[in-house]
Amino acid sequence: MKNSLFKRAIATAAAVPLALTQCLTYASAVSTDTIKAPAAVQAGSDALTLNDLLYIPADKTVSKWNVTASNSLAAVQNRTGDLDITPYVEDIAGKAGAYSDAVKVILTKYIIPNGVTYEITGSNDIILKGKVTSPKQYDAYKGTPGEALKNVGDKYGVPGLINQVTFEDVDVSGEITVTIKASKLDTSTTVPVSVEFKTADGSYGAGQLPAWAKGKVLEIQAVAEKAIKEKVSADKVDAAIADYEAQIKKITDKLDKATKNINDALAKSDAQTFGNLSEGIAYVNSYLAGKGVDRKIPESGAAIAAKEIVAKAYDNGIKKIAPNGEIAITAAELGGFADSVKDINATLSSGVLTGLGTFEDAEKDAVIAYYADGSKGFTVTDSYKKITATVDYSGIKTVDAGSVDVQIERVLVTETTTTTQTTTTSSTTTTTTTSDTTSTTTDTTTTSTDTTSTSTETTTTSTDTTSTSTETTTTSTTSMPADVTVTTSVVKSYVTADTDYAFYLNTEEEFDKAQVSNVILHTSYVEGYTIDGQTIITKEGEEIKDITADINFGSATPSNTYKEDNDTFKYTVPVCGTDGQPLTDNDGKNVTVTVYIGVKGDTNLDSAADAVDASQVLAFYAKTSTQGRGVYDVILSESKLVNAPDSLYEEFAAFLSDVHHDASATVGRDAKKDSRSITANDASNILAYYSKRSAEAYKGKTDKEIWDEVLSK
Question: pLDDT digits over 491-546, tens only?
C-alpha cells in the first residue's frame, strides 16, 4: 500500500483536510443553556481548553463532551472556506520515497489548482472536498507507467516515445468527498464517517482505491502497448512489449499488495495490553516491520504532535476556523494527553479497533469532597477517568467507511460506610435504700448501655436483652428501617463478543458457533428500598458472565437465510441467547455475525453451478499445475466481485469450488485458497452435478441429494 502512486495521489486530496479537522471538534467556547458550562467557561474564560472537553462535574460520572462539542460547532462562524495545502507539498512528497517527484507534480498540477474546500453544514456535518484532474500525457517519473514507456522507447530505438503518446481515453479524474457526520454529536458519542471517490465510472470507498488504480494502470498499459506496436520496429516489438509488461507488473504487484494489506487488516484479530501509548506504538512499528513496511510511527503522542506537518496543519486549521483565538488547545497538548493515558487495552476484530485506557481525574479533590459526608452510603478515597475509543473501519471497502466513538467516564474508588444499629428495648431497675423504709422504683428506657446507681444496694429485677445489628455491602451501607423490603433491579444488560466472518453452502442447516467467541454478559444492577416515596440505593454493582457456550442463531440457518437474488452473497445474522432472542451490545444494537452463503460449485459467483464454473476451475488447475504458478498468482473466479487473487470473494469462490471438501471435513470453511486442492476432479464433479441437475429424472431431488450422489462415486 505504501508504494501505490495512485493511492497516494488520490488520498492526498483528503489527507491534509482530515488532519485539519482534528480541531473542528473543539471549535468555539460558547455553551448553550441546555448543558452545564465547563468550569473554564463559567469562570469567564474566552477560550476553550482541553480540560473543558475532559471536564465531568463532581456529582456526575459520565462526560457530555459530545454535547459540548456539538454546541461549539454550532457557534462556528467560518462555516465554509478553502484549505490551502500548498504548505504541505514538500512534507507529503518527502514521505513518498521513490515516488516523491511524481507526487509533487500530481499535487501541484492536478489537485491544488482545483481547490480543497471545507463546509460545516447547518446540522454541523463537516464536509471536505478535493478534485483530481486527468493528465493527457505522462512524464517519466520514477516508478510510473511514464517511466516504463520512456525506458522502452530509449531501449528499442524510439527516443522520445513517451512524448508521442496521449492518454486522453484514460480518465483518472474524480472528486473525493469526506463527510464527518458531527450532527450525531447531539445525541451520541459516535461519529460516522464516509469517504467517496466519485469518478465517471462509479463511486469508490478508500479501501477500493488500489483495485481501481490497478484498472487504470491496465488501461494505460493498453494505450502504451498500442503505441509501441506502431512505433517500434517489427523485429523488436515483441521484446519491447514483454519488457514494458514486466515494468508495469511491478506497479500492479504493489497495488495487489495494497489490496491484500487492506483485506488482511479487515480480517485480523488481536488483543494486546500496554502500559502506555509508547508501548503500543512500539508494538505497531514492530508489526509493520515484520510486514516489510519501511515506515515508523513516531514513538509517542508528543512526538507525533511535534511532527512539522501535523503541527503546521493543526495550527493553520485552528486559525482558519477560530481566527479570534477562541480555541486554546494546541497540538502539543493533545499529544501530551495521549501520552498520559495508561493501562491501555487494545482489541482488533474484523475491522473494529477498540482502545481503553485510564488517566488522572482533574476534578478528584472536588469529587472526594462531594462524597465526604457519607450521605450516599459511602465515601470516595480516589477517582480517575476512563476513556474508550472505538474506530470502526469495517466498511472501508464501501463509501460508508465507518465511525469513531469516544466515551469518557469517571471511576470512583469508594470506602464503605458501616452503620451499627443498637436498640435497648426496656430495662426495669429496682433500687432499695437501706437507710429508710421507703422503697423507690424507677422505670427507665434508655438508648445507652451505661447505668449509674446512687444507692448502696441494687437489685435488678428484670433486664431485656440489647440487640445489635450491622449491615455491610461491597459499595455502601446504610441504616435501614426494620419493616422495609430490599429489592434488586437490573439497570442495564448487554453483551460484548468477538466475531469473525465465515463461508457457508446454501444446503447447510446450521451456522457455526466458532464464528463467535468471548461472549460476555454484563448486567448492571442496583439494590435498595423505597420509604415515604423516596428511593434509597444501598448497593450498585455489575455481574459479568461468560455465555459463549449458550449462544445460538435462533431459527436462522444457511439454507433459510440464502436468497438467490442476493448478488453479494453477504448476510448479517443476529447472535441469540438461550431464549432465542437476539443479544444486544452496549448501544442496544443486535450483536451479529457476517456470513457469505453460496451454491456448491459456483466458481463464477452467479448463483448456479454449471459448465462455465467447471471451465474456470479447469483453467485455474492448468495454470497452477502445468505452468508452475502459485495459487495466489492466479485468479480462479472471473466474477466481477473478485479483484485480486487473494481477495475475500476469491477465497469464497475457492470454498465453493473445492467440492471434494465441505465445512465438516478436514479442509473446513476457514481454510484459505492455498490450503485447498482445486483440481480437474472438481471440474469433472461440477460437470456431473450440472448434467444431473439438468436431467428430467432429477427434477424432484434437492441440490444436496444430487451432490451426495456425485461425490459418493
Answer: 678 999 999 999 999 999 999 999 999 999 988 877 776 766 666 666 777 888 89
What is the structure's pLDDT at 241?
A: 92
For residues 296 and 288, is the Cβ–Cβ distance under 8 A?
yes
H or E stretch including 66? helix 65-74
CA–CA dist 295, 487 (Å, integer): 58
Task: Tell me how crowded residue 618 is: count the other CB atoms within 10 A of its CB.
Answer: 19
Q: Give dist(CA 150, CA 141) in Å, integer.
A: 10
Distances (CA, A) of 289 to 19, 260, 284, 312: 25, 16, 9, 28
| Residue carrying the nine cell digits 466474477 | 639
Say what percent of the chain tops pLDDT 90: 27
Q: Which three cell numbers stand for residue 656?
A: 465453493
Instruction: Determine the pLDDT at residue 427.
Output: 37
**Rounded-to-integer distance, Cα 601 and Cα 54, Å:** 56
pLDDT computed for residue 464 by the predictor: 38
Name the phi and psi angles at 655, rounded to 5.
Answer: -60, -45
Q: How far apart are CA 68 and CA 664, in angstroms?
A: 54
Q: Are 375 and 619 in contact (CB under 8 A)?
A: no
Average pLDDT of every residue of the chain: 78
Mean of pLDDT values over 669-686: 88
The DSSP string of 514-568 is GGEEEEEEEEEEEEEEEETTEEEEEEEEEEEEE-GGG-B-TT--HHHH--TT-TT
pTM of the model: 0.54
Q: Residue 245: which residues within 8 A CB-CB, separation 6 or more?
A: 221, 225
User: φ, ψ for residue 639 (rounded to 5)?
Assistant: -65, 150
Predicted pLDDT of residue 21: 31
Single out the residue of 211, 196, 197 nearest to residue 254, CA to CA: 211
Task: Work out the angle at residue 243's Cα, subtended by the Cα atoms of residues 237 and 247, and round it to the nearest 5 degrees.
Answer: 140
CA-CA distance, 30 to 122, in Å (whole number)? 17
For residue 572, what are the β-bridge partners?
A: 594
Q: Which tens digit of pLDDT belongs to each residue from 40-52?
A: 333 334 566 788 7
